[in-house]
Each structure stands twice: as C-alpha cells, then as structure tokens.
Amino acid sequence: MRAVVEHATQDHTITAHLHDALWAVLWNRRYDDVDEPVWQADSAYSGVLAFVHALDPQTVLAGVDTGESFVAFRVQEAVPPTGSRVRVVPGAREMWRLSDVQPLGIGVELHFDNPTAATDHAWVDALRAGVIRLREIFNARREGLAARRAQLGALQEPSSLEEIWREEVAGISDRIALETEFTPKEHAVLARARSKGARSADEEERRIVGARKKRFSDRAAAEVAAFREERWPAIRDKAIAETRRYADYRTEVVRLEDALQRIRALTDRAAKAIGMLDALEKAGFRVAAHAFEPERLEEAVYAEELLRTIELLHAAIPLRAAAAATSFSAYRAPTAGPSVIPPRF
User: What's the predicted TM-score (pTM) here?
Assistant: First the structure.
C-alpha cells in the first residue's frame, strides 16, 4: 500500500491522510494490501467502488473491490457515490476511466473508511418500511391489472378484408354455378348426340359446355359487380371496425400482460430486498446520509431506484471472510512505516 500511496501523490500533506483512509477501507473490505492495475489497452476491472480520494482538482484515487483483490486507480473524471458498481477501463496513459456505472440512488452516502462499526441502523429500518410499503403497492396494482385483464376476456382475431372478399365472391360463384347448370333440354341434346357416335357427341358437348360457361361468367361478373357496389361497402366498413376493435383489444392486452410481468418481477425483487436489508444490518454498513422519500413510492421510477439501491448495497457486502483481529487500531499500519498485515486464523 505504501508504494501505491507514494505513486499516487508526492504531496506529504495528502499522503498521511490518504494512507490512513486507505488502510481503513482495506480493513473494512477484508484485504491485506492494495493491488496496482496493469495498464494495457485491453485491461478491464469490474467491482464495487469502495474508496474515493481527491489527489488534486483533476485527479481522484479510486479503489475498487473486484471480489478477489482491492485495486487502486488514478481517474481523471467525476466519480459516482461509494458503493456503486463500476467497470474500470484504460483512459489516458497510466490513467483510467469508469464505464458501465450503476450508481447508488436515493441520496445514499456509504463510507468504508471508518474503522468503527456502525451502530445506527435507522436507515435500514427506513428502507425496510419502504420496501414493505412497496409490496403493498405492488399487490394492489397486480390485483387491479388482473381484474381488468379478466374483464377484457378473449377476443378472436377477425378475418382480413381480403379473406372476407374471397369468401363472399366464392359464395356468389357457388350459387351461380348451381343456377347455371345444364338445363333438362341440354341434357337431352347431349344424350341424343352421344347416341349418334363419339364425333357428333364431342362437337355437341363442346357447344353446350361453352354456352354454359358463358352463362356462368356473364352472371358471375354481373352479380360480383352488383355486390361490389351495393353490399360490399357496408361489409368492408364493418370489417374495418372489427379490425380496429381487435387492434385496440390486443394493444391493451399486451400492455396489461407486460405490466403484470413487470409487477411480478418487482414483487419478487421486493421480497428478496427484505432479506438483503437483514444482511446489510448485520454487515454494519456506515451510511452517513440518505434522502429516502416514502411519499414517492407510488412513482415507478422511484420504486425501481429504491430496489436497485438496496441490491447494490447488498452486492457491496465484503465477500471475503471476516478478519480475526481484535480491533482495527491494534493493527493499523504507521503512516511512515511499512504495511502491517493483520493475522488470520
């Protein structure tokens, strides 16, 4: 850690405070030392932003807990609140920048640089009450959405205009085909022609079949034209109205189904958030301040922000085993000396 501090700044007025604050964060995060990142074009680190310290007006020393190591980066940009999830990628030479930032919300100020355990859990109680209220809101909304979905029922998709036109024209054609069948006289003529021989029968049959086809095509053309002018406009308007009605129905059903799916997902997250808050209370996180506003829980965006913040706080709980040392102060490294590694049993 001493090398990291000395490399970060040559200002001795900053070094002492930086050393003590960084050591406190290391202790809190269950690490023995700080790792320095390897600056390469394809380097990338992801984890919890656990430490932020301004070196000068343009540069910040940011410590990220990756779950396997604690890495310190020199960053020349604004940084999100401590406890946020970040991805660190190369910036300017020997400098880094933060991307894919998932910041804490509701004004939470989380600190890992205080060696004493937190005893004030009022913030946990406030968030727990907010989550309980959220579950009540979600249940009421889910019941309302389910009732509206049941009220809509099921509606079959209507036929398209093209399908309706084809069905109507097919019905006209079938009726005219029956009405223009061979007459009894034509059947008698065909029977006499067949009795005179095949040649005579073929000629007579072609003539009669042609006459019958002409009758059918003339009648069909006339009736289809009359149908188009007289009956089709009303049928078309009714079909268009049914199509619009179905489109409106389908739009609302899709919207309701999507809303129900979102409410189910949010309800599951809220149920898990209660357990996360219990774990946060045991972890003893020191939250210096928060701006939780219970009256805004009806807002979907604010409800999402509350759940996301609890999830990020839970993800910031140290994954490494707790230190077995008796106290922080007994093993704090001296400002001017080498790092002292607390014993582990």
Answer: 0.69
- Candidates 2, 26, 118, 1; CA nearest to 323 is 26
Q: Residue 287: which of 129, 119, 133, 131 has the closest Cα?
A: 119
User: In 3D, which of 64, 70, 106 has the Cα closest to residue 85?
Assistant: 64
Q: What is the CA radius of gyration of the chain?
A: 40
Is residue 253 a contact partner of residue 154, using CB atoms and an 8 Å limit?
no
CA angle 312, 314, 319 (to 5 degrees): 115
**Would you call 330 exposed, middle or buried from its count of C-beta atoms within 10 A (0-12, 13-18, 19+)?**
exposed
* Residue 287 CB-density burial (10 A; 0-12 exposed, 13-18 middle, 19+ buried): buried
Q: What confidence tens digit (pLDDT) does each residue in 110-142 have? A: 888 765 555 578 899 999 999 999 999 999 999
Q: Exposure of 88 by Cβ count < 10 A (0-12 exposed, 13-18 middle, 19+ buried)?
A: buried
Q: Which residues touch 66 (CB under 8 Å, ≥6 apart)?
A: 45, 46, 47
pLDDT tens column, 22-58: 888 888 888 888 888 888 888 899 999 998 888 888 8
Q: Which two tokens stand for residue 198?
A: 């095949």
Q: Which residues pair with 86 in a beta bridge?
A: 47
Query: Within the chain, where are the H helices?
Result: 2-8, 12-29, 122-152, 161-179, 184-195, 198-230, 232-283, 300-315
Question: Hey, is 288 helix, strand or coil?
Answer: strand
Chain mean position to CA 164: 40
